[in-house]
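Design request, tokens follow.
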């Protein structure tokens, strides 16, 4: 899950939520919402995360895309019953 991944990476890098948020030009509450699973970052902020943690870029991207696909599937299922593409 994306929120677990960013928390694990932040802790591995010995960063606090506040220090990471400030270094990315974000409010602490915005970052906290990502790490608790309440929200996902925008595409622009996802690019910032990847730039901040280049050795974890692929992992972050895979988790981010996976979560977006899951959200899309839930949306289609609520409207039609299944998405128009296989997931």
């Amino acid at each position: 899950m994306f929120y677990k991944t960013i928390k694990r990476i932040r802790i591995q890098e010995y960063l606090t939520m506040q220090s990471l948020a400030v270094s990315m030009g974000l409010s602490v509450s915005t970052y906290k919402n990502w790490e608790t699973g309440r929200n996902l970052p925008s595409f622009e902020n996802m690019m910032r995360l990847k730039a901040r943690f280049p050795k974890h870029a692929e992992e972050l991207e895979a988790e981010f895309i996976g979560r977006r696909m899951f959200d899309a599937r839930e949306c289609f299922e609520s409207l039609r019953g299944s998405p128009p593409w296989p997931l």
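Comment from the thread starter after seeing the answer: thanks! The helical segments are 2-12, 17-23, 28-35, 43-52, 57-79.
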